[in-house]
Write a structure and sequence with these properties.
The protein has 292 residues and is of the alpha/beta class. Helices cover 42% and strands 25% of the residues. The strands form 3 sheets. Strands 3, 4, 5, 6, 9, 10 and 11 form a 7-stranded mixed sheet that branches. Strands 1-2 form a two-stranded antiparallel ribbon. Strands 7-8 form a two-stranded parallel sheet.
Length: 292
């Protein structure tokens, strides 16, 4: 029977893609990591990684093992008694939108780690679509993502945390002539568009459809943070979610405008597997937002 130590090493290598980086994460030398992986493969009687020089990636068998082995490790860790009363402990591996870290989830994360000092949160930033596959495979325990625009696999669960209305942002000192009416601003100003392939990009398209406005296409970016920076410099206007934690009224470089006849909101929620070993932690995240 493989040891929990070897299973944790396997998960670290799967996360980092190298023995050296995995060793740094779990406090072992690269050689020790390699020995544990070879031992695990011998016990399971199958190779789990494809090796090429310094590169090591999960093969088909390894990918199939990832979610069940991650669940075994999480359930084992959950058996340990809490260090302080009912506090949460162990490692939580999560993904989160960069814009969520700029918004309400940052407060939740701070509160969670202060109240549970034995909880070790490893956080990855990225896009919603990428996180869906990683949660399903067991590479992540959960992820904070925009509501998927399609039906998610039955093995996954998405829980709404908070909503953000989609708004028009314009620079206070534009480098172009700017109209007075919101729809005229949309039609006549350079438009900085959120990536059409991203889930938030679908919401931007929905807003434009509701307004009936044809925009002057400018740059297309996959980061709300980058769009905000360019609008502040006066390069264009954009439609973005009104991030819940930013003090918009104090921003001296841009202003928000509600678009008439639109009601589109970005729904931000927690994506997790229906069955996993870190349920107490994800329940605490959902309780934080339910109590607001």
């Amino acid at each position: 029977m493989p040891s929990i130590r070897n299973l944790k090493t396997f998960l670290a290598v799967a996360r980092h893609g190298s023995f050296v980086a995995a060793g740094h994460d779990i406090g072992l030398t690269a050689a020790a990591v390699g020995l544990q992986i070879r031992g695990l493969e011998e016990e399971l009687r199958q190779q789990l990684f494809d090796r090429s020089g310094r590169s090591i990636v999960l093969n088909t068998a390894g990918r199939a093992m990832l979610a069940p082995l991650a669940d075994i490790v999480a359930r084992f860790d959950a058996l340990a008694p809490p260090e302080q009363g009912e506090s949460l402990s162990g490692k939580l591996v999560m993904g989160a939108l960069v814009s969520a870290l700029m918004g309400s989830f940052a407060d939740c994360l701070l509160s969670l780690t202060i109240q549970n000092p034995a909880l070790d949160v490893k956080l990855f930033s990225g896009l919603s679509a990428d996180f869906t596959q990683r949660v399903e495979k067991g590479e992540l325990d959960a992820a904070v993502v925009t509501q998927p625009p399609f039906r998610i696999p039955s093995s996954l669960l998405w829980t709404s945390l908070y909503d953000e209305p989609m708004v028009l942002i314009v620079p206070r000192q534009p480098q172009f002539a700017i109209a007075a009416e919101p729809l005229a601003i949309l039609r006549e100003s350079p438009f900085l568009r959120f990536d059409r392939q991203a889930w938030t990009g679908h919401l931007v398209d929905k807003v434009l459809t509701q307004t009936g406005a044809t925009v002057r296409e400018g740059m297309e970016l996959n980061s709300v943070e980058a769009i905000l920076a360019l609008v502040r410099q006066g390069f264009g206007v954009s439609i973005v979610p009104k991030l819940a934690n930013l003090q918009w009224s104090r921003d001296r470089a841009l202003r928000l405008i509600s678009l008439p006849g639109t009601d589109v909101q970005r729904h931000v929620g927690l994506l997790e597997r229906r069955e996993h070993g870190r349920g107490r932690v994800t329940a605490a995240i959902k309780d934080y937002f339910a109590g607001r």
